[in-house]
Amino acid sequence: MRLDHVSYVTSHDQLADTVQRLGSRLGSTFVDGGIHPRFGTRNFTASLKNGQYIEVVCPLDHPATEQTPWGQAVSKKANEGGGWFTWVFSTKDIAPIAAKFGREATEGHRTRPNGSDLKWKQIGVKEIADTREFPFFIQWLSADHPSQDGTPLAEIEKIVIADNDQLADSWFKEDILASLGDVNIEWVDPSTNDDQSGIVSVHLATPGGVVVLD
């Protein structure tokens, strides 16, 4: 298991502005990741060092958006004003994780503007709608990882997460903490984050110094 990417939600109307703002802060360029037809969302991604990336995702005006857990969760966050949404861990074999959840992983894909198709399996999305401090889990079925889309200039140093229990309720707490590499987690009280649990900010080392995206 390894930290794969962090996800930021915005509305469809604000997508271009959000990508521009975050990209200028990072000194990095986001690329169009395409549409998730099964989930009713679309994204832009910016590659980071250590095989990681940032995703900016928005809901679409599409039936799948309100019919799938991912689309519903993204739409709900966008309607709340957007912001940091979740963190995602990848694994080479998602079956043992799915067994803990007691259900099969969901298959997903998105078609890039160049026509290439990314495929994966994911699980844990239903849970992050209400427990946003939890990550979800993914197994890539495609070789071309989104971190390869562009030249990585920044790397994640720290993630600030509001959660009094510090993942105590997660079946995977020890696996998650052991899979962070050099990324530090700072736990803060949800009362400092409008009583909301989840990611508060992400600190990244860039050629121009440390940048805090909140």
Automatic annotation (TrEMBL):
InterPro entries listed in its UniProt record: Glyas_Bleomycin-R_OHBP_Dase, Glyoxalase-like_dom
Highest classification ranks of the organism: Bacteria, Bacillati, Actinomycetota, Actinomycetes, Candidatus Nanopelagicales
Domain Glyoxalase-like positions: 3-166
Signal peptide span: none
Pfam families found in the cross-reference section: Glyoxalase_3
Gene3D superfamilies found in the cross-reference section: 2,3-Dihydroxybiphenyl 1,2-Dioxygenase, domain 1 (3.10.180.10)
Native organism: Candidatus Planktophila dulcis
Full protein name: Glyoxalase-like domain-containing protein
